[in-house]
Amino acid sequence: MKPALAFRPPNYPKSWQKIPNGDLIVANINQVLAPWWPKFFGYHMLKIGALSGEIASVDSPIKHQLTLTNQVGGSDIIAEIDDLPLLKHSVDVCVLAHALEFSLDPHHVVREANRVLIPNGYLVITGFNPFSLAGLNQFIPYRRKQTPWNERFFSPMRVKDWLHLMGFEIQLDKRFLHSSLSGQLTQGVFCNHWQNIATRYFPSLGSVYVIVAKKRVLPLTPIKPKWQLRPHFEPVKVPTMNSSRKISKKSNQ
Predict the structure, then answer these.
(1) Which run of H or E residues covers position 189?
(2) DSSP character for 251?
(3) Contact at 8 Å (CB) between 124 and 214?
(4) CB-based contact 166:119 (threshold 8 Å)
(5) What per-residue string of b and e applies to 224-253 under the rule 16 or more CB within 10 Å gives b?
(6) If DSSP codes are grouped into helix, strand and coil, which group holds residue 195?
(7) Preceding amide of 13 cis, omega within 30
């Protein structure tokens, strides 16, 4: 397995319009996440990256929603996505929309999100599935030099392995848009017979995935030590003259 570290600075897009068929992708992501927003409760939601900031979450009961980017303008917090200037356990929900593909150390980005999340908080991750028609663009010479096909894609299984190691419980793993996502596509294209067949028989090969994970923290239950009494040292008694007389009298009787 290749290391997750990138060997060159990634070019993080400033909006979904900078990605081929980005409007279509974010529309389908919003459709998948729509029933989940009302389930997220708390006080603070952090959207990490410009793409996360454009995810529609108006149905969430969390009113304080902040967007963090490294760009000036259009964000509430200016910082690097792998070095969050927030306290530990200070956020109820974190959103990482296609942030792992455009980061130098995606595993560290997930660790940072885990650090700022409260216990039982939620982490939402979206990304491109390398094992899909869209993933094949990385092997086509005239496409693999274009954004986003020139970046590293991480499979949902690998991302879930990271999350499991950090103690997350996977609530949703949804893959959709069975297409190369090249050319000009519309929402109507994905309502055809092929999409229905692909969704039914090849659900894991969708080009885009959404993962919803819940942070679990096991309580530290103290284990009572099994106290054992130390055996006392009892030397062997040396028979005395009186004890030997008593033994001899009993034997004579």
Answers:
(1) none
(2) H
(3) no
(4) no
(5) eeeeeeeeeeeeeeeeeeeeeeeeeeeeee
(6) helix
(7) no
Residues recorded for the chain: 253
Identity of the amino acid at 14:
K
Q: What separation in angstroms does the CA of 132 have from each of 24, 136, 157, 207, 209?
A: 17, 7, 13, 5, 11
Predicted model pTM: 0.82
Q: 46, 91 in Cβ contact below 8 A?
A: yes
Distance of alpha carbon 143 from its chain centroid, rounded? 29
Which tokens go with 147?
Answer: 């954004």
User: Which amino acid, 180?
Assistant: S
CATH superfamily name and code, 16-215: Vaccinia Virus protein VP39 (3.40.50.150)
| Residue boundaries of the structural domains of the chain | 16-215
Q: pLDDT digits over 76-127, tens only?
A: 999 999 999 999 999 999 999 999 999 999 999 999 999 999 999 999 999 9
